[in-house]
Amino acid sequence: MTSTTTRPLPGAGTPGMLGQVVVIIGGSSGIGLETARRARAEGAEIILAARNPERLKRAAQELGAQRSAAFDATDTRSLERFFADLPAAVDHVMVTGPGPRYRPPLEMDSEEARDALGGHMILALAVAHSARGHVTPAGSLIFIGGTPGRRIRPGLGIISAVTAGMPALTASLALDLAPIRVNLIAPGFVDTPLSASLLGGDLDRRREELRSTLPIERVVGPEDVAALAVHLMINTAVTGATYDIDGGQQFIE
């Protein structure tokens, strides 16, 4: 593991992540896969982890991934084993996390509620704990949160709690893990396979609704989030921050 905390800036025309290693947990589709593509285009080596072995294999082959591992990141022992098995230190870790839980919290039993909360915040803590000692001092952790839960609404208490808690957790971890940088990306609706599975037949209607109401007059795609994620990996002055990327959705809904 290198002891330096700064990186020389790449020269003109040099890929910004040349020689760096990026771990994407949840990297077989959607935001994770698009971020892996973007980082690869910037010269990084990629390590992918995801639950679905078949999707993971296709993604790893497409990207020429350095290695890949199929496991459930919410299984703490599997997560710890994954980092322990890395052959060398890595530069950046991004974890996309599971999708939101839209069931009203009063309709959840205690186990489901714990899973809904732990799917994001406990996972972020577990990744931070497991990655510590395996990320270079000049490296970073990136988590994915969201913006929709900022407006309190009936039946969305779990989403609102996670949305409120993740920025504070991220800022705290930025201090605890320093000089490793820790940042949070907070998207709104992103046009991904996960969104398609959640909305089903309402997907096209939602897309059109957003095109007609968002200030940017288009739907946010995974490539938008990927561009931000790679920027946060490269920019060594940013830590403890939450970056909204929702096309202005929180201002109109």
Task: Describe what is shown at a glance.
The chain is of the alpha/beta class and 253 residues long. Helix content is 43%, strand content 17%.
Describe this structure in words.
- The chain has 253 residues and is an alpha/beta fold.
- It has one domain (21-242): NAD(P)-binding Rossmann-like Domain (Rossmann fold, 3-Layer(aba) Sandwich).
- 43% of the residues lie in helices and 17% in strands.
- It contains 9 helices and 7 strands.
- The protein has helices spanning 30-41, 53-63, 76-84, 110-131, 157-176, 193-199, 203-213, 222-234, 249-252; strands spanning 21-25, 45-50, 67-70, 90-95, 135-144, 181-187, 242-245.
- A 7-stranded parallel sheet has the order 3-2-1-4-5-6-7, sandwiched between helices.
- The longest helix has 22 residues, at 110-131.
- The chain is globular, with a radius of gyration of 18 Å.
- The relative contact order is 0.15.
